[in-house]
């Protein structure tokens, strides 16, 4: 007993100056759990075969003549009058064989590079939002200021691995918008870059800006992927001109296109889970095949962003049981063809409330269970993608960091198992002051970003703030303390002349503009 008391006194006086602080470098994460299933292996095989049958018998509409020509050269049945392409199983199989299983995502900072492969776990913020919202400034059309601020938030949290266009800068004309979006990414961030596929001229100029800004040669640019794009099919069974151009141009430039049908069960896809997945699978296979026909071996990703609609209003729903099942089923189909793949979280809620948190967290749980390589719209997405919420982003980051903490393997050594602590404490005692605790307390548990773990009295004394209100202070402080990455000024200098010349000649109109 005296020995134990002496040990406790010694522990209490132990200095923690040399303790290693908990790391928040949530990079190169790997899924901590085995993937789950909602379908049997036999059912997944039948669904894959039915998707192949759909492509061969019903076909898919390709609006771009060049895309139809590539399929025709590969012996697909092409009808240029109806724009329909019927793709045989052998063509798809050959494409799947040539698509890479592991893709290196490059970044201005080598520490921010990622491997895009099955088993990896990557996240992006909510993207493609035309509006932005925070408590103090309210809901508003997205501006360049909002776009820059949301990039700074993405840059500031390691759990966000790839950049995304969180708030579209609508105060910049569409023919000039790609210049400012690339300028901001190149000067405010050092993570993998996003590029919209909005027409060939804009895509090429974005490639040029990335090479200029990061001082890359042509050979450097094709050594891994320096940018990515998301390709959305026009479900059901159609790929439009800018999306097909994007697939081809990214493939030929050695950059990754993430082929993602947006199949809402009950609307643009069959109302059944399996039926919606078969349509999604067929459309994704068609896009992947087009990329491989354009450039065999081109980096490409399978994608699934499937949920259901509210059958009363027709509005998209997220975080529903159907969303979860569709995500897990998408993962099963992606693993069946052995390709890395993307999923998505998101929320239909109009504000950062309990509904928005539940919907997003259920979507994250689905991606975790499905072993998604990349989960898009993982933080900040509101109104089904119509709005990016600053407070929502901070609270979602808390959820993402909690998931990331699961990726750390638990030590199994004798000391960690804590026999000394078990022996140190008498029945009815406590473990606060044991040597075992004092050696570990600084990094034993995850320190919350926004959650308040105080009791009611302390919480009231601190103002009785909700998590949404606390998140306001966090994003404001994050922006206030933001520091640009080391390469920022050199990148800005290298691209300035190119952008000035582009603006002077009127920029480049987006596809259809």
Describe this structure in words.
With 513 residues, the chain is of the alpha/beta class. The chain has a single domain, classed as Alpha-Beta Barrel (TIM Barrel), CATH 3.20.20. 45% of the residues lie in helices and 12% in strands. It has helices spanning 2-12, 41-58, 65-73, 89-98, 144-156, 174-188, 200-213, 218-221, 241-252, 273-294, 321-336, 354-370, 390-405, 414-417, 419-424, 435-440, 456-461, 467-480, 488-504, and strands at residues 60-62, 77-79, 84-86, 102-105, 114-117, 122-123, 131-134, 138-141, 193-194, 227-231, 238-239, 256-259, 264-265, 300-303, 307-308, 341-344, 374-376, 381-382, 387-389. Strands 6-17-16-14-12-10-9 form a seven-stranded parallel sheet. A hairpin with an 8-residue loop joins strand 4 and strand 5 (114-117). Helix 2 (41-58) packs across helix 10 (273-294). The protein is globular and about 80 Å long. The chain starts with a helix and ends in a 9-residue tail after the last helix.
Features of the shown structure:
globular; 19 strands; 4-stranded mixed β-sheet; TIM Barrel; disordered N terminus; alpha/beta; 19 helices; 7-stranded parallel β-sheet; 513 residues
Unreliable parts: 1-22
Structure annotation, total helices: 19
Mind telling me the CATH class?
A: Alpha Beta
> Radius of gyration over alpha carbons?
25 Å
Q: Give the CATH superfamily.
A: Trimethylamine methyltransferase-like
The assigned structural class equals alpha/beta
């Amino acid at each position: 007993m005296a020995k134990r008391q002496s040990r406790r006194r010694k522990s209490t006086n132990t200095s923690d100056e040399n303790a290693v602080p908990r790391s928040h470098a949530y990079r190169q994460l790997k899924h901590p759990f085995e993937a789950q299933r909602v379908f049997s292996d036999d059912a997944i095989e039948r669904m894959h075969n039915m998707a192949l049958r759909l492509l061969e018998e019903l076909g898919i509409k390709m609006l771009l003549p060049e895309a139809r020509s590539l399929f025709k050269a590969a012996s697909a049945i092409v009808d240029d009058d109806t724009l329909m392409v019927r793709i045989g199983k052998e063509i798809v199989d050959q494409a799947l064989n040539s698509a890479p299983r592991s893709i290196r995502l490059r970044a201005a900072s080598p520490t921010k590079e990622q491997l895009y492969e099955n088993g990896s776990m990557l996240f992006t913020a909510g993207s493609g939002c035309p509006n932005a919202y925070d408590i103090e400034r309210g809901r508003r059309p997205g501006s360049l200021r909002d776009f820059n601020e949301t990039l700074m938030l993405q840059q500031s949290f390691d759990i966000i691995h790839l950049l995304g266009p969180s708030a579209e800068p609508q105060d910049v004309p569409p023919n000039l918008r790609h210049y400012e979006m690339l300028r901001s990414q190149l000067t405010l961030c050092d993570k993998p870059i996003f590029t919209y596929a909005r027409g060939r001229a804009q895509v090429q100029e974005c490639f040029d800006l990335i090479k200029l800004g990061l001082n890359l040669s042509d050979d450097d640019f094709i050594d891994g992927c320096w940018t990515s794009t998301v390709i959305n099919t026009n479900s059901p069974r159609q790929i439009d001109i800018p999306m097909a151009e994007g697939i081809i141009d990214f493939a030929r430039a050695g950059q990754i296109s993430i082929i993602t049908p947006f199949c809402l069960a009950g609307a643009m896809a069959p109302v059944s889970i399996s039926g919606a997945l078969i349509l999604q699978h067929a459309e994704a296979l068609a896009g992947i095949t087009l990329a491989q026909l354009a450039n065999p071996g081109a980096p490409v990703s399978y994608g699934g962003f499937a949920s259901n609609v509210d059958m009363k209003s027709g509005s998209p729903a997220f975080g529903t049981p159907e969303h979860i099942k569709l995500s897990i089923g998408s993962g099963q189909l992606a693993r069946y063809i052995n390709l890395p793949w993307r999923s998505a979280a998101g929320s239909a809620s109009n504000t950062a409330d309990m509904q928005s948190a539940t919907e997003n967290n259920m979507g994250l749980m689905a991606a975790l269970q499905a072993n998604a390589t990349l989960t898009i719209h993982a933080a900040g997405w509101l109104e089904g993608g119509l709005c990016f919420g600053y407070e929502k982003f901070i609270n979602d980051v808390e959820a993402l960091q909690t998931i990331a903490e699961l990726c750390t393997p638990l030590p199994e050594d004798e000391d960690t198992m804590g026999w000394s602590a078990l022996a140190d404490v008498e029945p009815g005692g406590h473990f606060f002051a044991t040597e075992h605790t004092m050696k570990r307390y600084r990094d034993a548990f995850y320190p919350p970003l926004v959650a308040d773990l105080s009791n009611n009295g302390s919480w009231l004394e601190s103002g009785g703030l909700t998590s949404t209100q606390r998140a306001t202070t966090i994003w404001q402080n994050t922006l206030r303390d933001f520091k640009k990455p080391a390469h920022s000024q050199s990148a800005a200098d290298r691209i300035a002349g190119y952008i000035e010349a582009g603006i002077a000649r009127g920029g480049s109109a987006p596809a259809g503009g």
